[in-house]
């Protein structure tokens, strides 16, 4: 009786995969938690959120398959607010502009967002949508190349 009680007590303290007899999720000795800090910028394979009302962006977000960054138009392969990137969205390659980053930025007076926001654009920085649904930072106004984005934006931060 005591042996059964101790056995059930020990098995309740063990993780589920040891009680059932399965292999651990990572048998290569990796940690089960993240030891590194989260990235403060956008790099390759980062999931993004389309904030304009383009058909391609709406379909991808509704299907639950957000676009991923596959390239950044900078020598250093790190993107921040205002940078141009290439994204893979619904099996296509499109260009986009980052209008909001999750991480803390080094530049002063640039707001921090809850999600990594992008706006899909053409070759000549013309947006594919007709309206931007999320607030965009005032720092984009200083850059003259994004005047078309500023024109269709509804809110600024």
TrEMBL record:
Keywords attached to this Swiss-Prot or TrEMBL record, sorted alphabetically, are: Mitochondrion, Ribonucleoprotein, Ribosomal protein, Transit peptide
Gene Ontology biological-process entries: translation
Instruction: Report if keyword Transit peptide is assigned.
Output: yes
Under InterPro entries, the record lists: Ribosomal_uL14, Ribosomal_uL14_sf
Q: Which GO terms describe its molecular function?
A: structural constituent of ribosome
GO CC annotation, single = mitochondrion
- Where does this one sit in the cell? Mitochondrion
Q: Mainly localized where?
A: mitochondrion
CDD domains hit by this protein: Ribosomal_uL14 (cd00337)
- Kindly indicate whether the keyword Transit peptide belongs to this entry: yes
UniProt cross-references to SMART domains, sorted A to Z: Ribosomal_L14
Secretion signal span: none
Say which family it is in: Belongs to the universal ribosomal protein uL14 family.
What name does UniProt use for this protein? Large ribosomal subunit protein uL14m
Q: Give the species this sequence originates from.
A: Darwinula stevensoni
